[in-house]
Amino acid sequence: MTTSLLKGQNAALMAGQVTFTVAAANPAVDVSALLLGSNGKVRSDNDLVFYNHPAQDGVRVSDHTVTADLDRIPSGVATVVLVASVDPLQPGAVFTTAPRASIAQAGTAGMAFTAPDFTDRETVVVLAELYRLGDGWKVRAVGQGYASGLAGLATDYGVDIDDDASTSTPPASAVPAQAGPAAGETVNLSKIQRQAPALLEPARQAGQALVNRGIANRRAAVYLILDHDYHMEEMYESFAVQAFAERVLALSANLDDDGTVPVVFSSGREPFLEEIRLDNYRGRIGQLHTQVDWGWGNVADAMRCMVSHYQESGAADPAFVIIQVGDEPWDKSEVRSLLQNTATLGVFWLFVGFGRGKLAFYKNLNASASASFNNVAFYDASKNPGSVPGDRFYTGLIEAFGKWMKP
User: Fold this and answer.
1) DSSP 3-state assignment of 281?
2) In the structure, what pLDDT confidence band is assigned to residue 181 with cuts at 50, 70 and 90?
3) What is the mean pLDDT of residues 159-184?
4) Lateral strand order in the sheet of 272-277
5) If you average pLDDT over residues 124-148, what whole number do you get?
6) Residue 28 phi, psi (nearest 5)
7) Which CATH number fits the domain that encloses residue 117?
8) pLDDT above 90 for 240
9) Given Cys at both, which of 29, 101, 262, 306 links 127, Cβ 3.0 to 4.6 Å?
């Protein structure tokens, strides 16, 4: 029997050899793999494994098959990325239906993954990732398309692709060096085009949501607080939190052009403050959260940490603090008190709920007319926000914030 994986879903692998086979009816594809360090980047250009460099550190490519010997992959490699790209001998060809990836290991049931259909003229797709977890390996179904071709993929993962097209690089005319505002855009997203092209489409979706809400020309400093309670472990392992942070980063590019979002992990101990940027976002949440103990989320302390950072930054623009929550806080009275005390500081708090916990406290923050907060809102992003289409996600994310921002 073959198990079908959904986008974002993961499964455990046994030690030994695992084989990925890619099938695509149209257009014809090339298959390659990337070996990434713990920073989400290749260690050198040799970590791009393709038909002109078919083997590297236990990973080899042959025709439409990638074989990874998990026992031979060096400890410095944290992730192996499986990539399918349109054959460069088919100029103008793009993906509409995604290729199918079949995953096989001796002695186990097979797995398969087909990403949702593409609509934005993607020419490259990251189909799956092998990643280390403790002493073992897991596979994750990804399905991330790139309209900017291999050049966009290379930018994200740190590969230096030559201009001679020897690695299937699309013509230079297909990838503008600096993309100005597209029709209807009020923010120049050229920085994303250069540094994080995979975020270009969500950034445009976020920008359109701001236009629809009438605040496209307003600016704000975006902050992110992430729940690091025990019950969130599955959400981190499945990359749901990583995907959520990427969407917040894409929104930030429209509101604050520094390409950086301060991130606080809320756990049982002191809040852990770091940042996610356009030039380091790949796998960033996974790298950071392993430095934080699991615990019962101390939401109030995390909020105080954000307020201190915002005040010390000297920012003139208001702050939009997005707080991901997966369950009720244990410090409810402190949270309420902090919301009351920050009402005049130019800070808008958006609690975003996803996961399997109880969220009644956050849903009811403004239920009482006598104790409501004009700078606080709640957005239920479902158990898995990655399943929410981008346009609907951003509409829900900024709806209340947009009302608060309007003069």
Assistant:
1) coil
2) very low
3) 40
4) 272-277, 260-266, 221-227, 319-325, 347-353, 376-380
5) 87
6) -65, 150
7) 2.60.60.30
8) no
9) 101
CA gap 382, 392 in Å, rounded:
12
Confidence bin at 163 (pLDDT 50/70/90): very low
165 in a domain, yes or no?
A: no
On whether the CB atoms of residues 379 and 352 are closer than 8 A, the answer is: yes
Residue 232 to residue 230: CA distance in whole angstroms: 5
Give CA–CA dist 112/1, Å, rounded.
11
Count of structural domains, the chain: 2
Record the tokens describing residue 312, joined without a space.
């010390």
**In the predicted model, is pLDDT for residue 117 greater than 80?**
no
Write out the residue range of the structural domain in which residue 351 sits: 195-405
Both tokens of 337, joined, read 């008190």
Q: Write down the pTM of the prediction.
A: 0.61
Contacts (Cβ under 8 Å, ≥6 apart) of 198? 144, 146, 152, 153, 156
Which residue's structure tokens are 């995953």?
A: 103
| More confident of the two residues 153 and 375 | 375
Nearest to 295 by CA among 315, 279, 272, 261: 272
**Do 370 and 222 fall into the same domain?**
yes
State both tokens at 154. Answer: 């290379």
| pLDDT at residue number 173 | 30
Of residues 117, 47, 136, 120, the one with CA closest to residue 83 = 47
- CA–CA gap between residue 82 and residue 35 (Å, rounded): 9
Token pair, residue 35, equals 């070996």
